[in-house]
Amino acid sequence: MNAQELIDTAKKLVAGDKGLLAMDESNPTCNKRFAKVGIPQTEEARRTYRELIITTPGLNESISGAILSDETIRQHNKDGVPFVKVIADTGIIPGIKVDAGAKDLAGHPGEKITEGLDGLRERLAEYGQMGARFAKWRAVMVIGDGIPSRGCIEANAQALARYAALCQEAGLVPVVEPEVLMDGDHTLERCFEVTEEVLRTVFHRLYRQRVMLEGMLLKPNMVLPGLACIKQETVDEVADATVICLLRAVPAAVPGITFLSGGQSAELASARLNAMNNGSLKSRLPWALAFSFARAIQQPALEIWQGQESHVLAAQQVLYHRAQCNRAARRGEYSAAMEKA
Questions:
Q1: Taking the domains of the chain in order of start, what are their residue ranges?
Q2: Would 293 disulfide with which of 174, 178, 187, 261, CB 3.0-4.6 Å?
């Protein structure tokens, strides 16, 4: 492990006003999104779509790193150039998702554990040789009647910490993603409570596994009411709750926090990030607050593309616009008027 290289890479991923583009959807998830807009669910269609994304002109103005899936990191553009090289040549840092997905947690009905630790050391070495410089692992916690349990939180926190330690051993910056899901009718206050408990547990385990906090990034959920909750707080109320929660649970040594979008609309995700980087909240932040969005950047472009070559330019323009909106949100300069541009 080269500690300084890890620190430098982590800082570069959240430097200035840029953020991460998550394009690491599993094949089944990608296929579901394709099916909704009538795109064939084939490997070639997925490859073509990913090429559309990474060749978007000016994407590197807003995007510092791109998280790839195992399939994507092995793919090439239409001229035979590896995607990793295409990405790196634009100045964007290639990353890789390394978890094997969330599975049912034995003995805990309704709860999940993320698998993929077996053989991870060898996979990280391979991905590093392919050009990846950071990695991501996602754990999910559901809010419901009596859940998440301590058993579920502890199990996922331990897996995240072991993954992070292996990443740093291999010279890759770990992006630690403990996601409290938006699904359900829980209140913002309940989400705050669970998110704080999850984050405190995760960082306790990271300490135990001797993970260097300066050489990692956190990818959490924002503190939000459930999608089915009757009361939906304002943008500013969400921003306040999220920042207060993070201040209570995330050490200042962490260089950056890159929020997941988690099913929020593209506009709301940008507005909420903007509110955290604006006004009195900004002066309280010991870490950079950035983005690591997937659907909140990609979805509008996917709906325009629809698998048609003639739609590529229009889709890329929309993708570029969404990335620019989030770049503005990092500066606290996003406004709804930008959506009319």
A1: 3-334
A2: 261
